[in-house]
Amino acid sequence: MAHSLIRNATLIDGTGRPPVPNAGVLIEDGRVRAAGRLADVPVPSAGVTEIDAGGGFILPGFIDTHVHMMMEGTTRRARKGSRTPCAPGSTRSSTASTWTMRPSS
Questions:
Q1: Fewer beta carbons within 10 Å, N or C terminal of the chain?
Q2: Do 96 and 80 touch, CB atoms closer than 8 A?
Q3: Nearest to 36 by CA among 53, 62, 58, 51
Q4: Nearest to 23, CA basis, from 43, 2, 7, 4
Q5: Residue 48 forms beta bridges with which residues?
Q6: 16 vs 62, more confident
């Protein structure tokens, strides 16, 4: 069996528990077998590849960090010279290729 040990990291397990400093994660044949304080992780005596996380963080792989930022009151596209709502009480107008903000009248 192939074993890898990720060490020198803070473990955030995604359960809401506090982060675990000085953590280790033991991987056996591509699957996590143990995780927690490095001193508590049972490490085989031989055949272990150690990976130094450099003081970084170990997080679960199911975190989706893909987001789309939306701004309320804006439009996707505006025609040149048109007035489109940008925020309550203001308009955005375009002449040539210059965009300016000014209060609505």
A1: C
A2: yes
A3: 58
A4: 7
A5: 3
A6: 16
